[in-house]
Design goal:
With 410 residues, the chain is of the alpha+beta class. 36% of the residues lie in helices and 29% in strands. Among the domains are: 76 residues, Dna Ligase, domain 1, CATH 3.30.1490; 67 residues, ATPase, nucleotide binding domain (Nucleotidyltransferase, domain 5, 2-Layer Sandwich). A hairpin with a 2-residue loop joins β4 and β5. α8 packs across α9. It is globular, with a radius of gyration of 22 Å. About 1% of the residues have low confidence. It binds adenosine-5'-triphosphate and magnesium ion. Magnesium ion binds next to loops.
Length: 410
Amino acid sequence: MTTIAGLDIGTTKVCCLAVQVQPDQPPQVVGVGVSPCRGLKQGQVVDMEQTVQAIQKAVQEAQAMGDIAIHEVFVGVTGAHIETVPRQAEIAITRPDHEVTEEDLERLRSFIQQVHLPPDRELLHVLLRQYTLDGQSGILNPLGMSATHIRAEGILITGGLTFLQNIRRCVERAGLQVKSLVLEPYASGLAVLNPQEREVGVALIDIGGGTTDVAIFAEGNLVYTGVVPLGGMNVTRDIYLMFRLSSIEEAENLKQKFGCALAERVPETEVVTYREMGTHQERRVPRRLLTEVIEERMREILEKALEEIERSGLLDRLTGGIVLTGGGACLPCTAELGRQVLGPLPVRIGAPQSHLVGLSPAHQHPTYATAAGLALYGYECLDTYEHPAIFTRLWERFVRKIKSFLKRNR
Ligand SMILES: Nc1ncnc2c1ncn2[C@@H]1O[C@H](COP(=O)(O)OP(=O)(O)OP(=O)(O)O)[C@@H](O)[C@H]1O
Ligand SMILES: [Mg+2]
C-alpha cells in the first residue's frame, strides 16, 4: 500500500493530508493534521522556526490519525513570485506509419521545457494544453493518431528560486523530503472542480488568509494563474482596526460567528458585543456595521480577482463559471456577493469531497481544498507527470470505479 501526503503551508495554518492507495482503488484519506502557523506571508517564509514547528505538528497529527509514517510530501507554493510563460513546440513524426507514440509526446514535452530560465527562476510545471496534428488544432489526446507533424501548446509555470528554496528548507528541517513543489491553485482545482467545468472553461478563486489565488482551467487543464495579495486576514484586520478590538483573535471570532459577505442580508436590529482595545470594556455594535466592513473588503478581493481574470483574456471562455474556495470563501453569502461582482457567470463555493474517499465531513471544507488537491496530485504522479489528460484520467478512474461498483451490486 502506498501512502501519499500533501502539505499545504498556508498563511494561517499548515495542513497535512495523507491518502493511501491500493491497486484499482480510489485514494482513501487516512490522516489529516492541522496546525496554526504565521510563518508565511503571501507565500513567502517570514519565520522559519515557526513554520518548521507547525509542519512537524501537522504531520505528526496526520501520522497519529492514520497510524502511518510520512517521509515525503507534495508541497504547495504560491505568491507573487509565480510566473506563467506560454510555450509551443513542433516535431516531425518519423515512424513510417506516422503513428503518434508516447515517445513523441515525451520528445515534444522536453522541447517545450527547453527554455533558458534566468538563474533566479525554477521550473515548477510544464502543462501541455492542446495539440495540432498537421494543421488540425484542438486535439486533446493525440496518442495513436496519425500525422507527419505534431505541435503542442502549453504553459510553463515558474517560481522565484529563493522563495522556493526557503519553503523546501522548512520542510527538510521538519525531517521530511519534498517529493514535488506544486502550484497551490492547481492543486485546489484538482480537489474542487469537476471535469466538465475544466473542459468548458472555469475560473477558480482560492481566497486564503493572505493571498487570493486565481487559476483558469480550459480544455481540461490549467491555462492561466495569477495572485491577488489580499485574503481573509485583511478582512479580520479591518474588523480589528475599525472597532478597536482587544485582539486579532477577537476580530477573527467576531467574523466567524457573526460575519456575512453581504451586509443587506443581516437584519438591522441585530447587535453584537465585543471587548475594546485598552479598556477591555464591553461594547455593543449593530451587526450590520460589522458586515458592512466585511463586505467592503470582500468586494475588493473579488474585484481584484476579476481584474486578474480579465487580464488573462479568457473571461468569455468561462462557460463553467467561477468556483470560490479557500477559507475566505466560508463567510455566509460569499457566493451571492460573487454573483454581484463577477457578473452573469454562475458562481458556486467549492470544497473537496467527491474525488477522495473517507474525507470526514469536518474536512470537506474549502480551507482543505489545497491539501486535498496536493494529495490528489501525488496520486496522479504515481504513474505520470502532468499531462493534458490529467483531469480526464482522474475522471476515467472515478467512472471505472463507479461502473465496477454498480456491476458488483447489480
Ligand atoms: N467559517 C469561516 N468563516 C469565515 N472565514 C473563515 C472561516 N473559516 C476560515 N475562514 C477564513 O479563511 C482564511 C484562511 O483560509 P485558508 O485556510 O484557505 O488560508 P491559508 O491557506 O492559511 O492562507 P493562504 O492560502 O493565503 O496562504 C482566514 O482568514 C479565516 O478567517
Ligand atoms: Mg491556502
